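Q: What would this chain look like folded?
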Amino acid sequence: MKAVILVALACFASALAVPRPESLEVARAAIKNGPIIQGIIPELNQTIVLEDVTLEIDATNLKGVFSLFGGVVTELNSLSDDLSLDILRLTIEGNVLVPLVKLTGRFDILGQILLNSGLHELSGAGDLTVTGTGITAYIHVKLRLTILLKVQISTLTVNPSIVSCEGSAPGARSDGEQVDINQLCVGIDVRLQEEWAVQGPTILADVIEAVNEFLKDLTLQDLIDLITPKP
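A: My prediction, written as structure tokens:
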């Protein structure tokens, strides 16, 4: 689950890393034309390179320490959203859809995996490929203004879902035999909801802290200027 969130954060960071215009004319025009700004995620690059990461995984069917090296996310060019920023209510709300996303890299893992035959030791290293389809997330953000009129996130709600996934990790072994990681994808949406109910609040608290650090020097006008669709 945390690996999925890291990928999402990388996408979010890429979305925010767009050039800021020299003036606020676009933002002023948006306010003049109405208090709602829709479609606020800029077009993403198709390829995003991830930083190397090591995570402790404590999911229903997988526990242990997982490391990802040289991770690359691709196929994001079809990402779409109907998110809207309500300037008067200070809210961002809507859905993000990722029809297809692919993660490749090199992995190292040591832990336990729950298969049909029970709990087994899991270890290995090598190439990793994971493809997810039909990933959606409903997002609701409540913003607040500090005494210095800087923007901060007050509350964040995310309800994720996924249609299916598949992958390959030839180096993953359990009891000396190669593990078919596609077994982990069976019923993935149900498990995603279960895991999110438990781990979601902690993950979202970390996301709020990280995003607020990014926003700490931005006024509401700066944020509007940043996310307003450019002519």
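The CA atoms of residues 64 and 101 lie 24 Å apart.
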